[in-house]
Amino acid sequence: MTRLFITVLAALLPLLAGAQYPAKPVKIMVPAQPGGGLDLIGRTVADQLSRALDQSFIVENSGGAGGTIASMTTARAAPDGYTLMVGYVGTHGTNPAVRKLPYDAIKDFTPVAMVGGTPNLLVIQPSVPASDLKSFIDYARQNPAKVNYGTGGIGLLNHLALEQFRAAAGLEAPSYAHYRGIGPAIADMLGGQIHVLMPGLAAALPHIRAGKLKPLAITGLQRHPLVPDLPTFEESGFKGFDGVQWYGIVGPAKLPPEITRKLNTEINKAIASPALQQRLAGEAIAVMPMTPEDFGKFIQADIARWSALARERNIRLDD
């Protein structure tokens, strides 16, 4: 009888924990300093969950090491739902593809909820004599020494996406500049030092609207409402360019299913709100609601996509 009681109690404890959760403040790690898309996602989710679950969700910014510090803090935390993290394409997509990490982006985490993503777009310096993707490819093939490419850093999404395009288009890159962030790269592009970038839409949009950068194509499966006249790579004859700068919420491995489902349900409710969607649109982020299972599959597919490209293009960062 006692053994049966213990067995039943063991089965009920996770359910009770899920029903009572959260019973104290929850920490959401943001793998970046305040400001920018990652911080926006962390604070937006924290605010929404605080309201929905009547408990404090507190953002803790932990930048540096490409998100490794925040990732390790989260991976090592107790799987009780009181330490979460904004996992994104860097920590759970491109970094695992190009470098050896002290954490396993799949095994050490529980996917909780996808929030949204923003596309990347190919932009050129207005001095480049091309009006569309085809004419740019023709010009770059005929004048490889006259085209300078840039990135916001080796192994980042804007670098891998540009390499994906160069491989698909068969373009040489005799001059390739890697900057410490997309901001300095755009600054040099505005000054004419580089001619080609593939930044996120939010970073490029003000300069596109000012006529200082010329957009040629955008990633994703459909055109973006902020640049409705800009064709996708798919429309332009390049398949497989659906990678995005995505943001979601993850927890430590073995997070109780009841807690995972509760958080996923509340986050999906929040991102269904037109007001919240409009707020995220300010950073060119479109919502991407998923179940925890679908989010997990998404992460695995993203790592596989960029790992294959990194191997093909011999991109590797070994710290």
Protein model, in words:
By secondary structure, the chain is α/β, with parallel strands linked by helices. It folds into two domains: 2-117 and 245-313, Bordetella uptake gene, domain 1 (D-Maltodextrin-Binding Protein, domain 2); 121-218, 3-Layer(aba) Sandwich (D-Maltodextrin-Binding Protein, domain 2), CATH 3.40.190.10. Helices cover 44% and strands 18% of the residues. The protein is built from eleven helices and eleven strands. It has helices at residues 2-20, 37-53, 68-76, 90-98, 133-142, 157-169, 182-190, 201-209, 257-271, 274-281, 292-313, and strands spanning 26-30, 57-61, 83-88, 109-119, 121-124, 148-151, 175-178, 196-197, 214-218, 244-252, 286-287. Strands 2-1-3-10-4-11 form a six-stranded mixed β-sheet. Strands 8-5-9 form a three-stranded antiparallel β-sheet, sandwiched between helices. It has a two-stranded parallel ribbon with strand order 6-7. α2 (37-53) crosses α9 and α4 (90-98) packs parallel to α11 (292-313). The longest helix is centred in the last third of the chain and has 22 residues, at 292-313. It is elongated and about 80 Å long. The relative contact order is 0.18. The model has no long low-confidence stretch (mean pLDDT 93).
Estimated structural class: alpha/beta
Structural Rg = 21 Å
Sheet bearing the most strands, described? 6 strands, mixed
H-E string = HEHEHEHEEHEHEHEHEEHHEH
- What is the distance, rounded to the nearest whole angstrom, between the alpha carbons of the first and last residues? 57 Å
**Can you tell me the residue ranges where pLDDT is under 50 for at least 5 consecutive residues?**
none
Can you identify the CATH superfamily of the largest domain? Bordetella uptake gene, domain 1
Tally of extended strands?
Answer: 11
Q: Write out the strand line-up for the largest beta sheet, numbering strands in chain order.
A: 2-1-3-10-4-11
List the total number of helices: 11
The CATH C-level name of the largest domain is Alpha Beta
Overall mean confidence score, pLDDT: 93
CATH architecture of the largest domain: 3-Layer(aba) Sandwich
Number of self-contained structural domains: 2
General shape: elongated
**Any idea of the CATH topology of the largest domain?**
D-Maltodextrin-Binding Protein, domain 2
Helix content: 40-55%
Strand content: 15-25%
